[in-house]
From TrEMBL:
GO terms for cellular component: plasma membrane. GO terms for biological process: lipoprotein localization to outer membrane; protein localization to outer membrane. Pfam families: ABC_tran. Keywords: ATP-binding, Cell membrane, Lipoprotein, Membrane, Nucleotide-binding, Translocase, Transport. Residues 8-228 form the ABC transporter domain. This is Lipoprotein releasing system, ATP-binding protein. Signal peptide: none annotated. GO terms for molecular function: ATP binding; ATP hydrolysis activity; transmembrane transporter activity. Belongs to the ABC transporter superfamily. The keyword Membrane applies. CDD domains: ABC_MJ0796_LolCDE_FtsE (cd03255). It comes from Neptuniibacter caesariensis.
Length: 228
């Protein structure tokens, strides 16, 4: 596989926290590469650093040293504005508690990444309707988050993560607060969209069933990732 297929790479990523003279090394020179369209699960015991890693990969937190390269660009170099552009263009996010904006409709929430790109409104609306249809929410476009079920909210969050066709979607326990049936439905959806758009998915999960469905499982252990 040539380097042009690598959409994300972590190179010697370290993260330490210092507090009252104590230093905790959470990530210690972590390395991995993610290819176009790859599905990867990151597992690890509580406190092993999964959320810390996901935040660093998404540009929400900085490594103490090392680099995260996304589509050839160093995520943590340059200005905040540049980082925001890389995040908007190349990354999508789905968190366990979805972080939808309560005062906006499903359509507006899903449209947010495209609205930030200042595209024509008619085009944004059309795309948002299309992506919400693909997650089975065509009848909920004008509903606000409080009027949606937990599974529906999670699907709006997935629609929002996918609308800009990012190279990589980062997911933190994407089905963590859903029942088995809805979780399986969301997982089918991720598989379908992964195949349709060739988007790479990195998900952090405690759910062994979900981890097994991805092509590759890495375990975070002693600050490094180990192939499983
Ligand atoms: N801001 C911080 N200051 C100090 N230590 C921190 C900070 N954030 C995280 N840590 C420590 O880093 C370690 C990794 O935390 P992290 O939340 O990444 O783990 P996790 O694998 O996601 O855990 P869980 O599965 O329980 O959610 C923990 O030991 C935690 O105490």
């Amino acid at each position: 596989m040539s380097d042009t297929n690598i959409v994300l790479s972590a190179e010697g990523v370290c993260k330490s926290y210092s507090d009252a003279g104590n230093t905790v090394d959470v990530l210690s020179g972590l390395e991995f590469q993610l290819e176009k369209g790859e599905q990867l699960a990151i597992i690890g015991s509580s406190g092993s650093g999964k959320s810390t890693l996901l935040n660093i990969l998404g540009g929400l937190d900085k490594p103490s040293s090392g680099q995260v390269i996304i589509q050839g660009e160093d995520l943590h170099q340059g200005t905040e504005k540049r980082r925001a552009q890389i995040r908007n263009r190349s990354l999508g996010f789905v968190y366990q508690f979805h972080h939808l904006l309560p005062e906006f409709t499903a359509l507006e929430n899903a449209a947010m990444p495209l609205l930030m790109r200042n595209l024509p409104l008619s085009e944004v609306k059309e795309e948002a309707e299309k992506v919400l249809r693909s997650v089975g929410l065509e009848k909920r476009l004008q509903h606000k988050p409080a009027q949606l079920s937990g599974g529906e909210r999670q699907r709006v969050a997935i629609a929002r993560a996918l609308i800009g066709k990012p190279a990589v979607v980062l997911m933190d326990e994407p089905t963590g607060n859903l029942d088995r049936g809805t979780a399986a439905h969301v997982q089918d959806l991720i598989d379908g969209l992964n195949q349709e758009y060739d988007i790479a998915f990195t998900l952090v999960t405690h759910d062994p069933e979900m981890a097994k469905r991805t092509g590759r499982i890495l375990e975070l252990k002693d600050g490094k990732l180990v192939e499983r």
